[in-house]
Amino acid sequence: MKPVGIKDNVFWVGAIDWNERDFHNFLTRRGLTYNSYLIVDEKVTLVDTVKHKFVKESLDRIKKIVDPSQIDYIVMNHIEPDHSSGLPDMMRIAENATVVCSQRAKDGICKYYDCDGWNIKVVKGGDELKIGTRTLMFIDMTMLHWPDSMATYLKEDKLLFSNDAFGQHVASEERFDEELGVEETINWAKLYYANILMPLAGLIKKKLSEVQNLGLEIEMIAPSHGVIWKNPGKIIEAYSRWANFESENKVVVVFDTMWHSTERLAEAIAEGAGSEGAEVRVFHVRKDSWTDIVTEILDAKSVAIGAPTIHNGLFPPVAGFLTYLKGLKPQNKKALTFGSYGWNGNGVKEIQKVLEELKFETLEPLMVKFKPSEEELQRAFDLGAELAR
Ligand code: FEO
Question: Which among 61, 227, 283, 289 is least buried, having the fewest CB atoms inside 10 angstroms?
Answer without folding.
Answer: 289
